[in-house]
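Q: My labmate handed me this sequence with no annotations at all. I'd like to see what the chain might look like in three dimensions before we decide whether it's worth expressing. Could you predict it?
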Amino acid sequence: MGMVGAVARVHGYEPAAITPTTKPILSQKHPDDRAHIAHTLHAIRTTGGAFGSRHRIIDTAGTIRSVVVVGDRITDDHGTIVGSTGFYIDITNTLDAAVSDTVDDVVAASRGAIE
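A: Here is what I predict for the chain of 115 residues:
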Protein backbone atom coordinates (compact mmCIF):
# COMPACT_ATOMS: atom_id res chain seq x y z
CA MET A 1 0.00 0.00 0.00
CA GLY A 2 1.45 3.37 -0.98
CA MET A 3 1.39 6.68 0.86
CA VAL A 4 -2.03 7.57 -0.49
CA GLY A 5 -3.48 4.32 0.90
CA ALA A 6 -1.75 4.69 4.27
CA VAL A 7 -2.91 8.29 4.72
CA ALA A 8 -6.46 7.35 3.74
CA ARG A 9 -6.53 4.39 6.15
CA VAL A 10 -5.19 6.27 9.20
CA HIS A 11 -7.93 8.85 8.61
CA GLY A 12 -10.54 6.07 8.45
CA TYR A 13 -11.11 5.79 4.70
CA GLU A 14 -10.65 2.92 2.28
CA PRO A 15 -7.81 3.90 -0.09
CA ALA A 16 -10.04 3.98 -3.17
CA ALA A 17 -12.66 6.16 -1.44
CA ILE A 18 -10.64 9.38 -1.16
CA THR A 19 -7.63 11.16 -2.56
CA PRO A 20 -5.93 12.61 0.54
CA THR A 21 -5.63 16.28 -0.39
CA THR A 22 -5.11 19.16 2.01
CA LYS A 23 -8.77 20.11 2.56
CA PRO A 24 -10.26 16.77 3.71
CA ILE A 25 -7.15 15.77 5.63
CA LEU A 26 -6.84 19.15 7.40
CA SER A 27 -10.52 18.98 8.36
CA GLN A 28 -9.76 15.84 10.41
CA LYS A 29 -6.94 17.34 12.46
CA HIS A 30 -7.71 17.70 16.15
CA PRO A 31 -9.00 21.27 16.74
CA ASP A 32 -6.18 21.96 19.22
CA ASP A 33 -3.58 20.97 16.59
CA ARG A 34 -4.97 22.73 13.49
CA ALA A 35 -3.00 25.98 13.92
CA HIS A 36 0.24 23.99 14.22
CA ILE A 37 -0.58 21.98 11.08
CA ALA A 38 -1.59 25.11 9.13
CA HIS A 39 1.76 26.68 10.10
CA THR A 40 3.64 23.54 9.01
CA LEU A 41 1.82 23.48 5.64
CA HIS A 42 2.57 27.17 5.11
CA ALA A 43 6.26 26.57 5.87
CA ILE A 44 6.36 23.68 3.38
CA ARG A 45 4.83 25.85 0.65
CA THR A 46 6.99 28.91 1.29
CA THR A 47 10.37 27.76 2.58
CA GLY A 48 10.30 24.11 1.58
CA GLY A 49 12.57 21.45 2.92
CA ALA A 50 11.99 18.43 5.07
CA PHE A 51 9.36 18.57 7.79
CA GLY A 52 8.12 16.65 10.78
CA SER A 53 5.12 16.88 13.05
CA ARG A 54 3.44 15.04 15.89
CA HIS A 55 -0.24 15.77 16.10
CA ARG A 56 -3.67 14.23 16.53
CA ILE A 57 -6.30 13.40 13.97
CA ILE A 58 -9.92 12.41 14.38
CA ASP A 59 -10.70 9.50 12.07
CA THR A 60 -14.05 8.90 10.39
CA ALA A 61 -15.19 6.79 13.38
CA GLY A 62 -14.47 9.69 15.77
CA THR A 63 -11.38 8.03 17.28
CA ILE A 64 -8.55 10.38 18.21
CA ARG A 65 -5.29 9.02 16.81
CA SER A 66 -1.78 10.33 17.55
CA VAL A 67 0.48 10.40 14.51
CA VAL A 68 3.99 11.40 13.59
CA VAL A 69 4.42 12.71 10.07
CA VAL A 70 7.82 13.07 8.40
CA GLY A 71 8.33 14.12 4.85
CA ASP A 72 9.67 16.44 2.23
CA ARG A 73 8.26 18.59 -0.52
CA ILE A 74 7.80 17.51 -4.12
CA THR A 75 8.87 19.97 -6.79
CA ASP A 76 8.35 20.03 -10.53
CA ASP A 77 11.12 20.46 -13.11
CA HIS A 78 11.13 24.22 -12.47
CA GLY A 79 11.49 23.96 -8.70
CA THR A 80 7.86 24.86 -7.98
CA ILE A 81 6.46 23.05 -4.95
CA VAL A 82 3.62 20.79 -6.15
CA GLY A 83 3.05 18.56 -3.12
CA SER A 84 4.66 16.59 -0.37
CA THR A 85 5.70 13.03 0.25
CA GLY A 86 6.56 11.15 3.40
CA PHE A 87 5.23 8.85 6.07
CA TYR A 88 2.42 8.82 8.61
CA ILE A 89 3.29 6.75 11.68
CA ASP A 90 0.35 5.94 13.94
CA ILE A 91 1.69 6.06 17.51
CA THR A 92 -1.69 5.92 19.27
CA ASN A 93 -1.19 2.51 20.91
CA THR A 94 2.44 3.20 21.83
CA LEU A 95 1.57 6.58 23.34
CA ASP A 96 -1.45 5.15 25.22
CA ALA A 97 0.72 2.36 26.67
CA ALA A 98 3.41 4.84 27.78
CA VAL A 99 0.82 7.09 29.47
CA SER A 100 -0.81 4.09 31.15
CA ASP A 101 2.55 2.83 32.45
CA THR A 102 3.40 6.30 33.81
CA VAL A 103 0.02 6.62 35.54
CA ASP A 104 0.43 3.14 37.05
CA ASP A 105 3.88 4.10 38.38
CA VAL A 106 2.58 7.36 39.89
CA VAL A 107 -0.40 5.61 41.50
CA ALA A 108 1.85 2.86 42.95
CA ALA A 109 4.23 5.47 44.37
CA SER A 110 1.31 7.46 45.81
CA ARG A 111 -0.16 4.37 47.50
CA GLY A 112 3.13 3.74 49.26
CA ALA A 113 3.24 7.32 50.53
CA ILE A 114 -0.41 7.19 51.68
CA GLU A 115 -0.10 3.84 53.47
